[in-house]
Write a structure and sequence with these properties.
Blueprint (H helix, E strand, L loop, with lengths): L1 H15 L4 H19 L6 H31 L4 H30 L9 H4 L1 H74 L5 H18 L5 E2 H19 L3 E9 L4 E2 L5 H10 L7 E9 L3 E9 L12 H13 L4 E7 L3 E9 L1
Parallel strand pairs: 2-4
Antiparallel strand pairs: 1-3, 4-5, 5-7, 6-7
Helix pairs in contact: 2-3, 3-4, 3-6, 6-7, 6-10, 7-8
Length: 357
């Protein structure tokens, strides 16, 4: 029953290939010409050659389609070699029986029971069988190659779709990580503005203006996958300007830049490190000291930031949302191409980032 259902599916798939009917017709006309050419060797009995070749053609086609569309896909491709060998043996037995019957019928009706009236090559049943199975083997081999080609193309399509899906997921993840930077950065900065507003500070409007400029950068650049490094440096300097207003004379900051090669980087890649230096850094002897270095070479991007820290401070404070998001972005954007280290000394906390370009 299962074989019958599979055979129906096979016929359905054959019907779907109606567009290949002209090609199949041309193929079998070629096989028929091949038979008539060989069987007519050394014989003038054209009627016998014509009808003998014509009668062999349906058997050849039936064997070919049965093996190509049923046995090969269901058993050989599925690596069911025992079943394939068994059913192939049955097919050969049945086909030999049919070919013998065809030869006998042609002997009776076309040569009046006289073997001498038969063309030379049609008298040898072994040769007839070899010729038929040669055609079947070649056609089945071509069908097997065609099936492998289809499978290979289908696998490539699936791989491409899988890669596209992974790429879309990666882009989605990066987008969500960048979106999380917005509220995190805004929350920290608004806290600064809120503190000045509570004190009624005259510098509150200046803070709001600087914050406006920072937000303008975020809205215009954050959607871009890459921005020039010089633009990112300007954004960091603008943020430092905002913090200078808050810390006033208690802040000592040094930002050293050595950009030998202009490159494109993801927007707001360093801001989390800069924020943490101001947020978690603690003054020593009345001053918060921050040192930043940014440099590029032909092959690497180097960024480091160091801030003063009280010895009693808990290093776990450095593991905030911003740093975690930055770490995930680096892993997605530069897999196995970056090194991020965080070291805490007695009075200093340092972050170093190296990216292989």
């Amino acid at each position: 029953m299962k074989d019958f259902i599979h055979l129906c599916k096979m016929l359905k798939s054959v019907i779907k290939e109606v567009r290949f009917i002209p090609l199949h017709l041309a193929l079998w006309i070629g096989v028929w010409l091949f038979y008539t050419y060989f069987f007519s060797y050394g014989s003038q009995n054209e009627d016998f050659v014509f009808w003998f070749s014509t009668s062999l053609l349906p058997v050849t086609a039936a064997i070919t389609y049965f093996i190509s569309y049923l046995l090969i896909p269901k058993y050989l491709i599925a690596k069911k070699y025992v079943q394939f060998s068994l059913y192939l043996f049955y097919t050969l037995i049945c086909s030999v029986y049919l070919i013998l019957i065809i030869t006998f019928v042609n002997l009776v009706f076309l040569s009046d029971f006289s073997i001498r009236n038969m063309p030379l090559l049609t008298r040898n049943v072994v040769f007839v069988l070899i010729l038929v199975y040669l055609v079947v083997s070649v056609l089945c081999f071509v069908q097997l190659l065609r099936h492998n080609h289809k499978t290979s193309n289908r696998n490539k399509e699936l791989e491409n779709k899988l890669l596209e899906g992974k790429l879309m997921l990666k882009q989605k993840e990066l987008y969500l990580l960048k979106q999380q930077i917005h509220p995190h950065f805004l929350f920290n900065t608004l806290n600064t503005v809120y503190g000045f507003a509570l004190k009624g500070s005259k510098e509150t409007p200046d803070l709001i203006l600087k914050l406006s400029n920072l937000l303008d950068y975020i809205l215009n650049q954050i959607e871009k996958p890459l921005v020039p490094l010089t633009e990112e440096v300007k954004h960091i300097e603008a943020y430092i300007g905002l913090e200078r207003v808050r810390f006033r004379d208690t802040l000592r900051i040094q930002f050293t830049k050595d950009i030998q090669k202009e490159i494109q980087i993801p927007p707001m890649l360093f801001i989390a490190f800069v924020e943490n230096a101001f947020k978690h850094g603690t003054p020593i002897h009345g001053f918060l000291d921050i040192e930043m270095q940014l440099s590029t070479t032909k092959t690497h991007l180097l960024f480091s930031i160091q801030n003063t820290l009280q010895a009693a401070s808990n290093s776990s404070e450095s593991h905030g949302i911003g740093l975690e998001n930055t770490r995930k972005r680096l892993e997605s954007l530069y897999p196995n191409q970056y090194t991020l280290s965080q070291t805490k000394e007695e009075h200093h906390y340092k972050v170093q980032l190296e990216i292989q370009l």
